[in-house]
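Subject: sequence -> structure tokens, single chain

Hey, anyone have a minute? Need the predicted structure for the following. Not urgent.
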Amino acid sequence: MTELHIGVVLERSGPFTLEELCASCDLPREWVIELVEHGILEPEGRHPEVWRFSGAELGRSRRAMRLQRDLRLNTEALSLALELLDEVRYLRRRVRDLETLLGR
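Reply:
Had a minute. Here:
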């Protein structure tokens, strides 16, 4: 018998409060605040009590957590690594788009 799994694509959901983001990613509140202070995450709102994170920010926080855990990166290196990964993702998307236009 095949199991059916139903879920929500979180990167297309939101907004999430700070507490919801922390709970869904199992992250300490202080660490998320540090990510915001370093520009790694960019919530809407001025203060942690009113911050709202998009689904994309939730995905970014999960990537940040994995990079920090697996590679033991400090905050500055983490920021750079995420920026480079974003650039690679963007360039791959552009190559796919161009290949589609060229009929490849």
